[in-house]
Amino acid sequence: MATIKDIANAAGVSSATVSRILNQDATLNVPAETRQKVLTAAEALQYIKKTRASGKNTTTIGIVQWFSPQQELSDSYYLLIRQGIEDYCARNGINIVRTYKSDINYASSIKDVDGLICIGKFSEREINFFNDTTSSILFLDMPVNHINISTITLDFEQAINDVMDYLVQLNHQKIGFLGGREYVENDVLFLDIRKKVFIDYCNNLSIAYEDYLMEGEYSSESGYQMMSALITQKKLPTAIFAASDSIAIGALKALADHQIQVPQQISVVGFDDISTAAYTTPRLTTMKAPAYHMGNYGAGLLHQMLTTDFPTALRIKLPCRLIVRESCAGI
User: Measured between alpha carbons, how far is 216 from 130 in angstroms, rounded to an integer?
Assistant: First the structure.
């Protein structure tokens, strides 16, 4: 079945132009020759316009998630991104084809979509495949260096600097880092910007961190294990920054099991501000990541890409905000 991208390639125009011509957008200003080229290409390729049951024209957006359904349920960060996308699409009558990278047939399920949102971390081979599938593509939570691909990510640099400034203001000079390793295709390790910014900050201010840096997985179980290892090895800093709230919650549990008081003996900061962060004991200080808004803005941006002539790709960074609760104290 022919796609909008096939017509765009045949007519030598953008997918957005094709979409607007086929949807009879009266606000589109293009030469009559261009309009005819698109219509001729659509007819030659036997393009069939997707419609709702009511007969109205509609757009179909594909969502590809690098997490499995089980992982998504255990980490609400990516779940919130997806919910933001789906809420926008529901409000604007946009169809969704959702798939996970772990699905055997995920590639075939997105071959006829008008646009594509990719959530998470993907290899260069996968990025090229998605880009060949549709010219209207957006990556969320992953920077992509392709000049024609738009991305929305979090401003990790500012976020980590804000966390560290806060801990330094509380006079902490021994700060630990509990992170997770993320891999793309063929077990290639994805660089965590949070870890890099953390290390650079510590080196610049001569903050001790080397004995307190550990990496496992983005889960409460891993947070518990990493914190327990630091306690067993008697390598306890005065503060811990956890790269996710899930890790932080596991670390809090390990500290409680070893009768180490938070924040009297050690301060703990998380990242994400998931719903349970406000109900830990003590309540978790954390960096709020606007995951839902990332998905909502992303769906809106892709919608614009499909309905207007988009002149250039965009690289957007969303700010994060420190939420101060009871898990941190000065020394």
Answer: 29
Residues 219 and 173: their CA atoms lie apart, in Å, by: 26
pLDDT in tens, the chain (331 residues): 678 778 888 888 887 787 778 776 656 677 877 877 888 888 788 777 654 444 445 789 999 998 777 777 767 888 899 999 999 999 999 999 999 888 888 888 898 899 999 999 999 999 999 988 888 999 999 999 888 899 999 999 999 999 999 999 999 999 999 999 988 877 788 888 999 999 999 999 999 999 999 999 999 999 999 999 999 999 999 999 999 999 999 999 999 999 999 999 999 999 999 999 999 999 999 999 999 999 999 999 999 999 887 778 899 999 999 999 999 999 9
Task: Name the one residue in this structure whose structure tokens are 């998630």.
Answer: 65
The conformation of residue 178, written as its DSSP 8-state character, comes to: E
Strand 115-119 vs strand 60-65: parallel, antiparallel, or unpaired?
Answer: parallel
User: In sequence order, what DSSP letters do the residues of 83-123 get, joined into one string?
Assistant: HHHHHHHHHTT-EEEEEETTSTTHHHHTTT-SEEEEES---
- Kindly list the structural domains of the chain, giving each domain's residue range(s) and its CATH number in brackets, ordered by start: 4-44 (no CATH), 156-289 (3.40.50.2300)
pTM score over 0.85: no
Q: Using only C-alpha atoms, what is the Rg of the chain?
A: 23
Tell me if 217 sits within 8 A of 224, measured CB to CB.
no
Neighbours of 293 (CB within 10 A): 14
Nearest to 194 by CA among 211, 210, 177, 209: 177
